[in-house]
Amino acid sequence: MASLKVSVVGADQEVWSGAASMVVARTVEGEIGILPGHEPMLAILAEGEVRVTAENGEKIVARAADGFLSVDNNTVTVVAGNASLVK
């Protein structure tokens, strides 16, 4: 099964990266879910959470604001001015 290569990056650090089966993020146009095979896209993030389901089933949640989300070739990159993991 295909997977996503995901990176969540803040202005000063990488918050999380790894293989995932799904990413859900809030954009200025609404919430979006990304699965392997998603069409290439670029979206502006709205303040909120980015939820990642890692390949092993672990749920990772990060707060992100002031940035964008890019999808291309099963690679999802979230770049935010402010990003941090939610404990």
TrEMBL record:
Pfam families: ATP-synt_DE_N. Residues 4-83 form the ATP synthase F1 complex delta/epsilon subunit N-terminal domain. This is ATP synthase F1 subcomplex epsilon subunit. It comes from Mycetocola miduiensis. It is a peripheral membrane protein. It is found in: Cell membrane. F-type ATPases have 2 components, CF(1) - the catalytic core - and CF(0) - the membrane proton channel. CF(1) has five subunits: alpha(3), beta(3), gamma(1), delta(1), epsilon(1). CF(0) has three main subunits: a, b and c. PANTHER family: ATP SYNTHASE DELTA/EPSILON CHAIN, ATP SYNTHASE EPSILON CHAIN, CHLOROPLASTIC. NCBIfam families: ATP_synt_epsi, PRK13442.1. GO terms for cellular component: plasma membrane; proton-transporting ATP synthase complex. Keywords: ATP synthesis, CF(1), Ion transport, Membrane, Transport. GO terms for molecular function: proton-transporting ATP synthase activity, rotational mechanism. Belongs to the ATPase epsilon chain family.
